[in-house]
Amino acid sequence: MSEQTAPRGPGEEAAVEMISFLLDGREVSAEKGELVIAAAERAGTFIPRFCYHPRMESVGVCRMCLVEVSGPRGASLQPSCFLEVQPGMSVTTDSDKVKKAQDGVLEFLLINHPLDCPVCDKGGECPLQDQTLAYGPGETRFVEEKRHFEKPIPISELVLLDRERCIQCSRCTRFAGEVAGEAMIDFIGRGEGIQVNIFPELPFSSYFSGNTVQICPVGALTAAPYRFAARPWDLDQVESTCTTCAVGCRVAVQSSSNRVTRLLGIDVDPVNQGWLCDKGRFAFDAVNRDERLTEPLVRKEGALVPASWHEALAVAAKGLREAAAAGGAGSIGFVGGARLTNEGAYSWAKLAKGVLGTDSVDAQMGDGLPAEVVVGLPRATIDQTAAADTVIVLSGDLREELPVLFLRLRSAIVDGGLSVVELSPQATSLTPYAKASLRYEPGGATGLAQALVGTVAPSAGSAGAADPKALAEARRLAGAASVVVIAGRPSVAEDGALVAEAVQVLARGLPNARFLPALRRGNVLGALDMGLAPGMLPGRVTLDGGRAWFSHAWGSVPETRGRDTAGILAAAAGDQADGARVRALVVLGADPLTDFPDRRLAERAIDGAEFVVAVASAPGPITERADVVFPAAEAHERPGTTTNIEGRITRLGQKLVPPGQAWADWMIAGELAVHLDADLGFDSVGAVWDEVERLAVSHRGITRAVLDARGAADGVVAPLSASAVTMTRRHALPLDPIAVPGVESVERQGAPLHAGLVESPTAAGVRGGAEEANVTGPARPELLVGPVELDVPHVTPIDRYSLRLVASRTLYDLGAAVSAVPVLAGLVATAPLRVNPHDLDDLGVPPGGTLRVRTATASAVLTALPDASLPRKVVATEFNAPMEEGTVGDLIDIGAPVVVLRMETP
Amino acid sequence: MTKASPTGGAAVQGRDAASSSAAPRHLSAGALAAAREIIALYPEPRSALIPLCHLAQSQHGWLTPEAMTDIAGLVGVTPAEVLGTASFYDMLHTEPVGTYVVSLCTNIACLLNGAAELLEHAESSLGVNAGGTTTDGVITLEEAECLADCDRAPCAQVNHRFVGAQTPESFDRLVAELRSGARSEEIPDHGTLTRVRRSVGLQADRAQVAAERAAMAQAQSERAAAKSATAEGGS
Amino acid sequence: MAITDSPKIVTGRLQYADSHTLERYLATGGYDGLRKALTMTPEAVAQEVDAASLLGRGGAGFPAGRKWAMLRKNPVTYLVVNGDESEPATFKDHLLIERDPHQLVEGVLIAAYALQVSQVFIFIRGEFALGLERVQTALNDAYAGGAAGSDIFGSGFSVDVVVHPGAGAYICGEETALLESLEGKRGFPRIKPPFFPAAIGLYGEPTVVNNVETMSNLPWILLNGGAAFAALGEGRSAGTRLFALAGHVNNPGVFELEMVKTTFNDLINAPVLGGGIPHGRDLKAFIPGGVSAPWFGPDQIDLPLGQDEVAGAGSMLGSGSVVVMDDHTCAVRASWRITKFFSRESCGQCTPCREGSGWLEKIMERIETGHGREEDLELLLDACDNIAPGLTWPPQQTTICVLGPSIPSSIGSAIEMFRDEFLVHIKEGGCPYE
Ligand SMILES: Cc1cc2nc3c(=O)[nH]c(=O)nc-3n(C[C@H](O)[C@H](O)[C@H](O)COP(=O)(O)O)c2cc1C
Ligand code: SF4
Ligand code: FES
User: Fold this and answer.
1) CATH code where residue B36 lies
2) Which end of chain C has fewer CB atoms surrounding its CB within 10 Å, N or C?
3) Which domain holds residue B72?
């Protein structure tokens, strides 16, 4: 890829011009165009503020940040949050006049603000309280009656608003309108009576509503789950990464008495810039639930009974050995693993492939893309994506699947020059922002991709449902200098290979493009990097490519390529044409019964498997039916690292002690290995990482020391050559108490935010330069690069009575992350069936009426909604969401390239 | 504050919101046609928000939530933004008001000429406080800020038509006339801000506007004739 | 000083009952100014206005010619006419809008030509229902007669003029709030810089905002020349100006007077003008330029009606409204009512204005109703000082727009001039005038 056409990274921008100005009499340098408030902060002078937020446009309304600025007509008071630094300007932040103005503003704010700090959630970490102490007048001169509003009103299921406490800084309304693009809260009224509110009966049901709670400088907006839960002085905290989805937002995890009480977004420039989605923000509560698994379980006489670790491990080892003895190593299948840490994933991969010798290992649950495609394509970072000229999106709805990536894209579109081309069977949240939105029918992605990159003439009809004008525009945009493709799964009712092939068509047709995988499960990309995929070994190498290297390092690797999850389950169910069976199933923190698209196959697989081992943190359908259950630590209970969609490796912080006898995932693999008479060779999570760094070629050089370096708090993108380790400077955290309000206040209570592996980086096992020279043995394997040969199924045309199904993802579904958290579970909505209005008309079903859809083997009843964005003969619904009758999982046949169904009036 | 966005500054939502920006359901066909004409006058649809609020009030007398939702869809903002904007303005009512909104100015020039006493009289004779609506739903009493008619103080407006300086006695007569309908020609029901439409320009069809005006004038004179006939018959 | 016999520049037609009709307008030289302008270059028209030294009549008194010149450097995209007139006791634009809408329209068209804009918005206060109808009718007539729309009078110049109704909010008179309102938003004044909407105005484009009276002067200036206009008045205060006189006078109304040549005393007491204070009472105080202006006492009654003259004496001519209070007026009550106005009309953005106005009003109410405390006077002044530091005139501000610093004017004046009266309220537990 040539230099000119590479997507611009943030570090490649033109050097900023620096100017200098006088701040309280001393000369200080600032970036040209920088706001006085920010420049002063960098120079160590904190100017109090309420409305200013570094990630939103300044409005200059609270007037707390007034400073004196010299001008032609003498010094005047100006809002430093709105004023750009000018060369030679003289700014005074501490004069009597400034002090008086600040006192005045605080006094004005307090006249109508209730003094209910003792019962306010914000008490103890309230910038108004703090700034009153620091800058405010001593006592109140206000004897009149305060403004009164009805007590807290819920503005959504998750957020409560106490209008009495509001100081009208407009942070929340700006967030809703500017950042989320959902102006569902606004100021109502005028002057003294102005209040934030929603439109009657139209709640602020944004996926991002929790951010308003985080940035509210007072206790006006509170999160329903956190209300009265804790006080900042009881809180301890650690920096970590949210693994609810694969964006990898950095968070502060705060806890009190071994319970997580709150997650706050950290302003990490390359990733989440302070924001979180509500699912990520509130999903932590799963870790606190009482129904956690606290001891190993073993099935005895049909019933699961508690057992010692020793016993459970022995039973598991025996079962696996017997399966291997009966049908060879290939009769053991491992599914799941996207919720493990990198260290856990590596340990399990080593156990499965190096010890047990099976390659039938897959962290993806039939809803991803083939690992070779994901791992082999040149990866883009989120920053590169936001800075690209054109982003081509061929994935599910990003707001539903990777919400904060959606926010980053939206702001790049609205504030910058990013153009989006969307390839999708249905409208998504990005559609209103897309320059061109091209429709295809399930099965038609490759044809559309070919039309887009010009492999076939667009007039040849291959573009299917796409509008020719939009296609022409899309082709023009695809020719831009920097292009990033976001590749994921628009539908789980369509074979992943079909989409993967379309992605490869784009890769071949746009040789300079970079790719950002839109795979949603927490650490799925880490799991793939660690080799939890058929045909792959740790470090983004193929089984064949890495055979010599890992045989040397591990002792052995599987002979032949294994099966993916669909194949493993089919083989367990006894469906495989070759007759080979999977007898033992190991399920790693996943549940085929709820996570896998083809629910009936999963059922048959679990029934068909002779021996099922489940590694799980809480009971669920799969643990009910397992023969051995290992209790595992969850997020916030285990240290280690995780990898996001960019390949960014960040450290996970451990905040809690796992309940009962639950163990970290890497440890379970290690102990199971011992019962299989093998030694994985790790005595600590750090030791696992050391081996990863040593053996995984994509991770070379990302040592513990690198990950623990202060400047690497934002993580390191693998492989190191992809982007230099940029030692980032965090936004203003040390000075600004309200950039991320909750974090700083807890720090001041004596709990500094820290992150990292538990062991110190200087612990034994860190590779030194001398050791490096001594490595002998086979040559280092090559990273997998570029498109691969895919086995792409043939899609047959459908008859005129049939339709094709799109099953997309919705953020709040029946998955474990949501079900385990009551406040989120309450947000799960019944899925409608969206139908092209003409098709609905043909059937004579009115909008909102119910209809039955039927495949050869199953049926379901749904409420029909017209959706003109859908091509004719395509219907869409959400996977893993409740329906009137039946489930989508029953309709999906993973063996068929697309799901074909018929509609009838019930 | 004015930031260029590819979507014209309008709040855009994805799939879920697509249905809320569906075809307006509450504004009448006539109002809808007028709304589209108004929107076409401006470089950006949102500029029509306030004129459309006036238009919706001319249909219902106040801004119903349904009308605000329709307006949101027409100009490409959320209903919350319509409410947020409308509630800023005194003339836009997000709660029902009477057929006649009687505004009494009590600002300085009127205060110096007995406005406070007039308001007190009005409150007691109507039996409502300022801001309230009489039980028969005919009159809403408002304490207004300066209405720019200070040489006729204390100044009063009914549905934004100036009715001249008022004394307690003239006020009671005015109320009686409003209740009897005697002023309905001169003062349209609340919500009708202006009866003169733009007759030319970018969108309007001159012939159509002329016809409408003629029809309006005709209807008006007919009503007047009918009224005077009944008045004569009745007395 | 005497009341000069200057020409009636903007009110000449008001002697006719049908002054608002096209017929009357055409019969009295209507649209001749526009016709003449169209024969000149746009620059020449602008120069004529510059030569007239026409100060903006919206309150700030910035010369229209200079404002245009600043903008003509970059092409002006929009002309917006400010007909929001909501400053208490100001009712001169109301008169021009209702009684001579064609004159306004002609002025607007001349300005549009000089500025070479193709889109004009006339923002008219929503409460002027009749005015809205009259201006729209005048515009309809102008379009029909070829004076507006495409190819005006065959000149090749085209302009579209839209009448935009306000919806009731004083702050929308502030030009940036007006633009926000015109964009369909709440009337939140925009933060400065930029200090003029010149650079970033309507929809972010360069925009000229001018007042209704400013515009209404243009037909005469075009017909009679800028020099003739500048010859009237004195110094910076050129031409005539409308003064709205209200309060305790026998003959309240709008008077067109030559600037500087006339004094407040003339305006209030001359039989042909205000006709003096009713019931033979004495003058207690008067507000020289709208309620945002500091008050004057009888001592200042001989000041001439000139912008600089009034500014020199510590107040402003502002919007040209003069409110007269006789000696039976309660100063506490008057300033309380003015404070209440600001509290109701604060847009609500800035903390000092939103909270300060409400608090001040509550304190004033307490004093007026007999619940005042002596320390309240210092508290009032200190709270005022926190809104407008120094309590100087023109005020310094802690807020985005100058509504905030306008709040202290009346309180400051009342306390300074009538401190005793406050003390009587406090000591006697109520208003001595009730
Ligand atoms: C609070 C406030 C209210 C104002 N109200 C009006 C008004 O009602 N009418 C007006 O023409 N100007 C008003 N102005 C002044 C305008 O901002 C602006 O200066 C004026 O319209 C410019 O026109 P001109 O240069 O022709 O005077 C107001 C200013 C402020 C700060
Ligand atoms: S000073 Fe008052 S009116 Fe002006 S912008 Fe601020 S809050 Fe609004
Ligand atoms: S005005 Fe600057 S922080 Fe609020």
Assistant:
1) 1.10.10.1590
2) C
3) 8-95
